[in-house]
Amino acid sequence: MKIALLNVKFSPNLGDGLLCECLERELAVALPGAEVVSIDLAGRRHFRGHGPSRRGRVIALLEALPRWARRRAVRVALALLVRFRLRRHVRDRLADVDAVVVGGGNLLTDTDLNFPMKLAGALGEVARAGLPLAVHAVGVNRKWSRAGQHLFVRALRAAPLFSATVRDTRSQQAWRDLLEPHGLPPAGLAGDPGLLAGRHFDATPHTHDGTRVGLCITSPLAVRYHASGAPPLIDLCAWYRDAAGALARAGMKVVLFTNGSPEDRAFLAHHGAQWCTALAHDGLAHAVSIAPAFAAPQDLIGFITRCDVIIAHRMHACITAHAFAIPAIGLKWDVKLESFFALAGREAFIADCADLGPPALIALTAKAIAIGVDRAALDRLIVATRADIGRLAAQIGATVAARRP
User: Fold this and answer.
1) What architecture (CATH level 2) is domain 203-373?
2) Do you find a cis peptide bond into 272, omega within 30 degrees of 0?
3) CA dist 82 to 20, 43, 118, 133, Å?
4) CA 49 to CA 12: how far, in whole Å?
5) If phi over 0 gives left and psi between -120 and 50 gives alpha, with beta otherwise, what is residue 232?
6) 153 near 185, Cβ under 8 Å?
7) Nearest alpha-carbon partner for 319 in 14, 39, 25
8) Residue 287: CB partners within 8 Å, gap ≥ 6?
9) How far apart are CA 296 and CA 156, in angstroms?
10) Angle of helix 146-158 relative to helix 114-128, nearest 10 degrees?
11) Torsions phi, psi of 106, nearest 5?
């Protein structure tokens, strides 16, 4: 049996690759003997490391355009990608496949028609091949354009959908409101596969003295462009600088890192050295450092598991930390992050940067470390997430068996 996962495994944001690898590996365990492969929705075939990228400049350009012009420009570019690259990429990779799963990640979201057009193109090839389809543990954002909703509905109705799950109750409500009226079946709930990182990847042992804080840097450009709510009103660059300084003065070792998105890397490269130099002048030369860029999910995991606490906007930096029982502090920007902290029972450890001045941040960090992670609750999440994938595996097995002569 061969199962294909449609996702963004090879995204430069390594959190996407991490959760995809967890789903691949756990599904292969639940379906002994099956081959499980990922098909990237941007047509990528491997992790590209951390070379130069135009992504940040493109986002900045799109943000500067009027909304109507931005949508038109992106739609033309995506149409060319889907027609001349993605559909052929998916068609070639579907050879000998028995079933297809869309998941996981925040795939049912509409930022300038990106995922609606890519999924419509990819699932058009799935329908053309006559393959059964499942959707597993995806995030669903309800802020869809009319065109985006039409594309999602058309895509998900094209192939026979034998299972549908989403990763949180907000996504479930959005699915109910936006898709069920158009004939799609209800979606159940399933845990984010990234919660299984501790099961499928090795931790790196601590090799340091004192408290090590991983401060995940996210470009304000990305926060503004992708935020599901109102963008932050504070100067995020100044907040990161002040946060690193405050934590260092409190006696902690601060390491600045990113999940890998090019705009985040560029922002950190531009500002990080300046922050470190300014702190060195204050006598904190070795208290703040910058982690090397990571090339693959294992590198990101290796870094996170050497930390005592993670502070991040990026969801899968927080999920990865939690999966290894490392306390995380979430910085609000997207409801998907709030949904995860609610699921994990850690609502007390997510806050808006505007409410986290230096004293509040130091106090919350100390509290997170002192309380730690409730391992019993974490174990229940891991068991439930494995069971969710086990049920998916059983449905895949039954569906494939029923199709065979």
Assistant:
1) 3-Layer(aba) Sandwich (3.40)
2) no
3) 21, 9, 6, 20
4) 8
5) beta
6) no
7) 14
8) 248, 249, 252, 253, 254, 279
9) 31
10) 20
11) -85, 65
Q: Are 289 and 276 in contact (CB under 8 A)?
A: yes
Cβ 22 vs Cβ 320: under 8 Å: no
Q: How many CB atoms lie within 10 A of CB 345?
A: 14
Instruction: Give the whole-angstrom CA distance, residue 126 versus residue 132.
Output: 8
Nearest Cα to Cα of residue 256 among 303, 192, 322: 303
Alpha-carbon gap, residue 21 to 104, rounded angstroms: 10
* Residue range(s) occupied by CATH 3.40.50.2000 in the chain: 203-373
Q: Answer whether residue 66 shows pLDDT above 80.
A: no
* Buried b / exposed e along 259-275 (16+ C-beta atoms within 10 A): bbbbbbbbbbeebbeeb
Per-residue pLDDT tens for 73-97? 667 778 888 887 899 999 999 999 9
Do 248 and 279 meet the contact criterion of CB atoms below 8 Å apart? yes
Q: Read off the pLDDT of residues 374-389 as tens digits, 9 standing for 90 and up.
A: 999 999 999 999 999 9
Nearest-angstrom CA–CA distance, 275 and 259: 19
Q: What are phi and psi of 381, to 5 degrees?
A: -65, -40
DSSP state letters, 19-68: HHHHHHHHHHHHSTT-EEEEEETT---S--TT---SHHHHHHHHHHS-HH
Of 290, 146, 141, 299, the closest CA to residue 227 belongs to 141
With b for 16 or more beta-carbon neighbours within 10 A and e for fewer, the 280-316 pattern comes to eeeebeebbebbebbebbbbbbebbbbbbbbbbbbbb
pLDDT above 90 covers a percentage of the chain that reads: 77
Q: What amino acid is encoded at 355 in this protein?
A: D
pLDDT in tens, 30-61: 999 999 999 999 999 888 765 555 555 555 55
Distance CA 259, CA 359 (A): 26
- Bridge-based pairing of strands 288-290 and 309-312 is unpaired
Tokens of 105: 């990640």
- For strand 212-216 and strand 253-257, is the pairing parallel, antiparallel, or unpaired? parallel
What number of other Cβ atoms are within 10 A of residue 229's Cβ? Answer: 11
How many residues are there in the chain? 405
Q: From 1.20.1640, 3.40.50, 3.30.1050, 3.30.70, which CATH number describes the 2-198+381-403 domain?
A: 3.40.50
